[in-house]
Amino acid sequence: MTAPRGRTGRPPLTEERKAEIRLRIARAAVDLFVAQGVVATTGEQIGQAVGVTARTVWRYFPSKESCVRPLLSAGIDLIADRLRDWPPGQPLEQLFEDELAGAHDFTGGPDRATVGALVRLTRTERGLRAVWLQTYDEAEPAFARALAERAGLPADDLRPTIRAAMFNAALRAAVEHYAWRTDMATADMATADTGSADATTAAATTTDAATTDAATTDAAAAEAELVATLRSALAVAAEGLT
After folding, report:
1. Is there a contact between 58 and 123 (Cβ–Cβ < 8 Å)?
2. If DSSP codes are grouped into helix, strand and coil, which group holds residue 158?
3. DSSP secondary structure letter of residue 11
4. Separation CA 160–CA 63 (nearest Å)
5. DSSP of 186-229, one letter per residue?
6. Is the pLDDT of residue 64 over 80?
7. How confident is the model at residue 1 (pLDDT cuts 50, 70, 90)?
8. N vs C: which end of the chain shows fewer Cβ within 10 Å?
9. 154 contacts: CB under 8 Å, gap ≥ 6
10. Would you say the pTM of this structure is higher than 0.85?
11. List of long-range contacts for 223-226, beta carbons under 8 Å, 24+ apart
């Protein structure tokens, strides 16, 4: 009697492993988009950066723009949990102090300077803009459910729905405000650098060190700017949520 043949080939991926691959693809896509733009980035390049084929990239995502979704949506559940457990009387910005201080990452992905660069791309890249806005559309019901549970209200009550919309809009406005301001500051710095190019030629031997220091300073400044903007937005949003 012949024994039945079992499954051959690779074992199926667990959901945890699939999520890990999706996140790796997302991080690679963000880095490439920021470095060379969306148009110049291909599925093959994204896959190569992760160590998978372009076919694998398209198995997880319908388009290259959609590759960034795991990074944009990763913090939704975390934020909803914070809102659900928000103690009465506690300032809203204090509720998210760990996230603002960097102890926990809202996105689990790139540094905040890179997030700012990605958000700036949504101004000119329609595909990325659609993904960015869709992420907030998906977040709003989760925030509404959390606020309803916190207040002991039915899930379909209008009040937590409106409050969630206010909170959601405050988050998006804060991140975009930070991204646009950073963009203008970068443009001003680039103009200044161009105008002083002749004067800095003699200092070419110190260029690499200065560039490294400037990059570190810019990253720290971007971090502080985003944190300050989010704190301000949360404080304003709290006026309508308490």
Report:
1. no
2. helix
3. P
4. 34
5. HHHHHHHHHHTTTTTGGGGGGHHHHHHHHHHHHHHHHHHHHHHH
6. yes
7. low
8. N
9. 148
10. no
11. 223/102, 223/111, 223/112, 223/113, 225/178, 225/181, 225/182, 226/112, 226/115, 226/116, 226/174, 226/175, 226/178
Query: Which residue's structure tokens are 């599925």?
Result: 43
Spatial separation of the C-alpha atoms in residues 129 and 32, rounded to whole Å:
17
Contacts for 155 with CB less than 8 Å, ≥ 6 apart: 144, 145, 148
**Token pair for residue 48?**
């190569």
Give the containing element (helix H, strand E) for 121: helix 112-121
180, pLDDT greater than 50: yes
For residue 38, report the phi and psi dihedrals to the nearest 5 degrees.
-75, -45
- The residue count of the chain comes to 242
Alpha-carbon torsion 148, 75, 45, 38, what sign?
positive
Whether the pLDDT of residue 214 is over 70: the answer is: no
CB 120 within 8 A of CB 179: yes
Can you say whether residue 123 is alpha, beta or left, with left for phi > 0 and alpha for psi between -120 and 50 degrees? alpha
Distance separating alpha carbons of residues 207 and 221, to the nearest angstrom: 20
Residue 158, Cβ density class (10 Å: 0-12 exposed, 13-18 middle, ≥19 buried): exposed
What single DSSP character describes residue 4? Answer: P
